Ig-like domain-containing protein
Amino acid sequence: MAGDTGKVALLLPVLALAGWCPLSPTGAQTTQLLVEPPWRPAVLWDQVTLTCQGSGTASATTWYKDGRRWGQEFGNKFVVSESGTYMCDLPGTGRSPPVKVSDDLLVLQVPAWALLNGDRMTLRCRSWQDSSLTWVSFYREEKELQLLRDGKEMSLSPLQLHHSGRYRCRGWVDSEISWGWKESAPITVTVHELFPMPVLEGPPEPTEGSPLTLSCLSTPSPLQPPPTLLHLFYRDGQLVGGPQRSPQLLVPAVGVSHSGNYSCQVHSEGGAVQKSSAQLRVTVRRVPVLGVSLWAQPPGGQVALGDHLVLSCAVAVGTGPLSFTWHRGDLGALLGTGPHLELHHVGDNDSGQYHCRVGNGDSVAESVPLNVTVLGKWVLWTGVTPPMTPPSHLARCQPCLCPHSACGQCHHQPWSPVTPGACR
């Protein structure tokens, strides 16, 4: 129950100043029993004031002492005159956690608000009516933390989760009702997380040129108003963003160089609490290669035997560096690389289906095949492709060597009889 008491009083200084009701971790409003001075357990000789806060009017407050109904005549606030364990109840939000008021000979007090890692916790060992107290020892579990000859307080800072446990104090008391070695009742201290371990979220494979947003998620403790948290972002161990209050790292347009192992770190404004996320692997993918086109010079892929042929390849979409390879046939051997393929003196064996293949490391695309036809010189003169090899009794007409009147038929058919000496 002592741990619950600490949670109830977590917001005490804020509530006392701002006058608002805290929310439970689930978001539902609860009844809070506030204690002033803000220590637990409270001690009777401090003139302790209890205030019941929640949903409902002051006149509707019902008080309980040591588990029994104690009446409604006090309203929602009163000064304690008897030791015991108190609770209050409001119709709208129910019964509060208990608050203890002690009248023991020796009492160990801790702050009444919830303790978060990174906070400072003061332990106060107090004798009855603040009578003489010397040689004070403080303990957590069975381990002695500190021995003070004349002092009555010790502090732990910054608090860590392992500081949770049962605390007590022991000292020499010299009061008007008792003297000698006395030991306090133990009190349970629970140190809550200021914020949990952060989780880094974002797309693991963004496309080159697209925006990238990485979010460092760590919800602050609901036990107090949200603290100021600072966020830092790392890639491969190097700081790339922060410190900043925003939990997001924004990259307007990513490149391949932005690939790497990312992590984030969250720490409290004073730096007392620091926590790091696990790594997130981000691999920037290039824009896929699309729309591969192929064309030839001369146009159409028809070229005369022995002439010069240039094939060119381009892509409509895709980020680089791009690699180009040239092939002939379905699974042709590699003919060349680069966006252009040049054949300086084409031969009969250079005819066929040509295509280019383009890749960027992440994707590969191919062009539609282009048919390359190697033509003889006579085809260029006549514009007609012979259907077969000419018979032996026909001679080839060569207009370049004879007058048009002698070889006029060559303009209409590829082969024709020629009288001896006609092309002299």
